Amino acid sequence: AGHDDTTLVLQDDGDLVLFDKDGSTLWSTGTALGPTGLAATKSLAVGKRLDSPDGRLSLRVDADGLRLELDGRAVWAVIPAVPDEKLQLTLRKSGNLVLRGTDNAVYWSSETAGTKHADLELDAGGVVLRAPTGQELWRADVPPGLFDATTTDTDCAEVTTPVPLAATVLTETGIRVHPCMVVAIDALLAAAKADGVDLGGWGWRSNEQQRALRARNCTPSGCRPMTATPGTSRHERGLAIDFTVDGRVVSAGSTGWAWLVQNAHSYGLKNLPGEPWHWSVDGW
Hints:
The protein is mainly β.
């Protein structure tokens, strides 16, 4: 009361704010969304959070712990034995994500030191720590079925252009691919494991990540290793995987390479000559 010419505004960040005629804030709902990511050397203190653009997914730090929440429901958490008002989640320059508390007590770590310029961000499936190349270093996922997501029976041959993150899905082992590949990749990885070969890898990457990779690997005289022009990479379509074996990139002569050469064709994958680790639906 007592204020004329006020304006009620629903801001882009989700906060409903009542402004006085001079632009000052008289009242707000306090529902503004937090940032979607955390850059290297930055921290989240108690009361702070990351939010997805639609507001459904949050990574929040409170005195009683670190939580990944979907629509307010915790789906992953680190809970100290006793509440700690000094809790702070920090993405260190080394690439290690660390939850510390009073007297610098370490409650949890992603154990990913060794990759500079990593970024923590919320994506369509959870929270992910990524290297500048797009490689997923660590992630916590929303359990399958909680999102009202639908998959598609699209033939991979019909996927001819880059796809957004929202159009991809995760395999059971956490490799992000186009839905047309997920059944075959899950079957391939299960078969390899049954044969004693521990395959992993990473699949989809964004156009921005492909551009960064091209800039890093290429000069006017060529690219080392070979790096597709942004917009043409099968990774951007979710149709390629760079495989690892026992946590290391597959190389010629490795057990992973030998297994893939013998079996990958049965799951619809072809190798890109010169890159033992790179397999896609058409060999590019």
